[in-house]
Each structure stands twice: as C-alpha cells, then as structure tokens.
Design goal:
Elements (H helix, E strand, L loop, with lengths): L2 H11 L2 H9 L6 E5 L2 E4 L5 E4 L14 H13 L10 H13 L4 E7 L2 H16 L3 E5 L8 H5 L3 H4 L9 E4 L4 H7 L4 E7 L12 H14 L2 E5 L23 E4 L11 E6 L3 H6 L12 H14 L2 H24 L4 E7 L2 E6 L4 H11 L2 E2 L1 E3 L2 E7 L7 H24 L2 H8 L1
Parallel strand pairs: 3-13, 5-6, 5-7, 7-8, 8-9
Antiparallel strand pairs: 1-2, 2-3, 4-10, 9-10, 11-12, 12-15, 14-15
Helix pairs in contact: 1-2, 3-11, 4-11, 12-14, 13-14
This protein binds pyridoxal-5'-phosphate (PLP).
The site of pyridoxal-5'-phosphate has 14 residues, from α5.
C-alpha cells in the first residue's frame, strides 16, 4: 500500500485539516496491521503499543480472537435486524446488562455512538421529570451530538451558536457548587465517573456519595457516563462501584463494541420505562442494537465481567503502580502525579502543555497515548486490559524514554518555541 497516496486521498477527500495537523506534528501514522496491544504503520516501519485504545474501544486488544470468532459465527445466522421489531438478540443483551447492573437498572435503549446514548439519557431525564435543567461538570466530555454537546465546554460549541437553554456546568468535585445549583428544577446531573478529558480527575468518595444523596433529595436523576470507565477499566466492572453509589441512568459505549462492531447502551431504572411504554417509538436508532453487534456485546460482557479478568486488571494495575513509583522518583521535577485507578491513568506534569509534548515524545518512543484536551498538563494512559506484566515493563520503559525526551525538549526550547519550531 502506498502511504503517500493514502495520505493524499485522505487529505483530498476526508479531512484536509487532520492531514495538515499530523503532518505538522510529524505524526503521519496510518494504521496498518493491528493485533493485541500493538498497531503498526501501514508501511510496517512504526510499531506502537496502544495506550490510547480510543478511550476503551480496544479494552480487549485489537482484533481480539474471541470477539472475531463470535462475530463470524453471528454472521451465519444474523444481520442488523429490524429496529422496529421484537428482537431475540436485543432481548438477550438487555437481560444480560440488567443482570450486571445494581438495583433496578433493568432497561436498556441501544445505540451506535456514545453521544447518541447520552442524548437519550438526557431526553429520558427531561421527559420523566418534566424539568428543563441539565447540569454537568466543567471540563467534562460526553460527545459531540446535540444534547451531549450542550453539556460540554464552550470551545466545542461556540462555532455553532448559543447553547441550548437549561444547560449549565459546575466545577468538578465541588460539593458547595453541587448543593447551590442542583435543585428541584434540575432534570439530571451528568458526569463521567472519572472525567477523562478533564485530565483523569478522580472524584472523592465523599463527593460521589453527597452527589447521590443530593440528587435523591432534589428528585434529580443521576446520569453516570461510563463510556470510558466501564467494562473493567478501573478494576471493577463499573467504576461507580468504587464509590458505593447507584446511578439512575448509566451510559456505556466504546468497549462494548469489542473494537469490532459499534454498540452503545443507555441503561435506566425500571420506573422510567413507563415513558417508553407510553411512547414506544419516540426514540429509534436504525443501527442501534444491531443483532450482530448484540452478539459481540454479549461476548464482551461475558469476558469483562469474569472475576478472573477483573483480577488480572487489578494485578497488572498494581504492577504498573510500582513502575510509576520509580518513574516519579526519577523524574520528580517533571512528573507531578500519576492519577491512577485500575488501568486508567492521567500522567500529570508540572507544566502546561507538557501533556501534549509527552504525546509526541511517547509516539517517538513507540507508544501511543493522548493528552487531555481540557487539561494539557495531563497525558492519558489507557492500555488494553489484556496487557501482560512484560508489556507493563515495556510501557514503563517507554514512559521513561519519553519523559527524558520531554526534558531535552524543555531544556532546549520554551514550550511555545518547541511547538512553533518543531511542530
Ligand atoms: C466519556 C465519554 N462520553 C461520551 C463520549 C462520546 O462517544 P462517541 O464518540 O461514541 O459519540 C465519549 C467519547 O470520547 C467519551 O469519552
């Protein structure tokens, strides 16, 4: 395959802006072969350990053989199905999700994208409560579709005009702000259990418990976005379990696809189902809950909820934490903290934009990881959950190498100079 031609076609017919950005950053990686924790450039010259994983899409690694086998088998019997009809596969997947959720989180609407699933959660909260206001976290991220976009930061909304009425953001982990703004007019409060784009900020247990209590007190529905944190990422099947709270609505995406077939889920409490009972065709998604995708998602859930799988995540996470300790000692002037829960980490640097520079340095060291767009001091690290201890050693070595590069960059140039000159 001719890489130059691919880049030209992409630039001319898909996204000239993305092509220009990667050229400027000298990161013109075109995904070729991919397997397990690794992806190789189409020319076979660059191999990266994938610590981005599209935010959890590749929790089970690239082209996981069990998932591929499941999809292949499913094509013997199924296709997308018809979203208007009763479906054996959607019924099976809905039942499985209910069995893996606490309390009466028993109903699911399926979708194909996380934004779509968040939109549905917000629609349901508004319809059920009859209230207008939706409160989210400053710096949080729930997608780029209509209502999800309205919960996010201004930088992503501003070119499209005024925000929708009733949407408001409050600071993260701030109990006073929560009590001040979430009230009897609030339909829903939405947050990622661990806001990734904000810089993998881990909330306090006190905050999460007060949040739950205050939502109950005010009749506000608590929507927890587990698009990145769900499916074992933090060492528990659902990250909200760490905080001993039960949400009213849970949004699941990314990893539910097994990296193979898009599938998202909005899971909600039984009492809200009355709304869909009365309006069964008010929200439809042609491809949402496709029967092939349902087979894949069932397999993902079977693998991810296995206690041995979660034990593995916790074991490698503890091993990774030991590596972080040594890196923190060695690079104490650069690394402020490793914000880690399970296999989700934000590497926090002291200086602004060092998260961005680290992304570049890591790429040059053979590792793909991505800075947090709403806090560029931080680089996110989300390796596949199937990594081995040997691969953890490799990741620690690569972080070490990348921070050394970062030191060189910041000694030789100011961050601004570096970004202007080298990128
Ligand atoms: C926490 C979170 N919620 C929602 C979304 C939106 O998902 P999608 O891109 O599938 O619409 C994302 C995507 O990155 C996300 O990280």
């Amino acid at each position: 395959m001719n890489k130059k031609q691919i880049i030209k076609d992409f630039k001319d017919h898909v996204s000239s802006g993305k092509a220009a950005t990667y050229k400027k950053y000298r990161m013109e990686f075109v995904m070729g072969e991919r397997e397990g924790a690794y992806m190789t450039d189409v020319e076979g010259k660059i191999k990266l350990i994938n610590c981005h994983c599209n935010g959890g899409v590749f929790n089970l690694g690239h082209r996981n053989p069990e998932i591929i086998e499941t999809l292949k088998k499913a094509t013997d019997k199924f296709d997308i199905g018809n979203h208007h009809l009763i479906s054996s596969q959607r019924a099976k997947l809905g039942k499985k999700l209910a069995s893996l959720m606490p309390g009466d989180l028993d109903y699911t609407v399926f979708g194909v994208g996380g934004g779509e699933a968040v939109d549905l959660a917000i629609k349901l909260a508004k319809a059920y409560t009859g209230r207008k206001n939706i409160i989210s976290i400053k710096g949080g991220y729930h997608g780029h579709t209509g209502l999800a976009l309205a919960t996010g930061d201004e930088q992503y909304r501003e070119p499209f005009g005024d925000n929708l009425p009733g949407f408001m953001q409050i600071p993260f982990n701030d109990i006073d702000a929560l009590k001040k703004y979430v009230d009897e007019d609030t339909a829903a409060f939405i947050m990622e259990t661990i806001p990734a784009t904000l810089g993998i900020e881990i909330p306090s247990k006190e905050y999460m418990q007060q949040l739950r209590e205050h939502c109950t007190k005010t009749g506000t529905l608590l929507i927890i976005d587990e698009v990145q944190t769900g499916l074992g990422r933090t060492g528990k099947l659902w990250a909200f379990e760490h905080f001993e709270i039960q949400p009213d609505i849970v949004v699941i995406g990314k990893g539910l696809s097994g990296g193979i077939y898009p599938m998202t889920a909005t899971v909600f409490r039984t009492e809200y189902e009355q709304f869909f009972h009365d309006h069964p065709f008010i929200h439809v998604s042609t491809f949402g809950g496709s029967e092939l995708g349902a087979e894949v998602a069932l397999k993902v859930l079977e693998i991810s909820s296995d206690p041995a799988f979660l034990d593995h995540v916790n074991e490698v996470a503890a091993y990774l934490a030991k590596g972080y300790d040594s890196l923190k000692k060695k690079h104490s002037k650069y690394i402020a903290a490793f914000r880690q829960l399970g296999l989700m980490t934000g590497i926090e640097f002291y200086k602004d934009k060092h998260g961005l520079l680290f992304t570049k340095a890591a790429y040059e060291s053979g590792m793909f990881s991505l800075y947090s767009n709403n806090n560029m001091k931080v680089c996110q690290l989300l390796p596949p959950l199937i990594i081995t201890k040997e691969q953890v050693d490799e990741i620690i070595n690569k972080i070490d190498k990348a921070v050394s590069k970062l030191k060189y960059y910041s000694m030789a140039f100011s961050v601004k100079e570096f970004i202007d000159k080298l990128f």
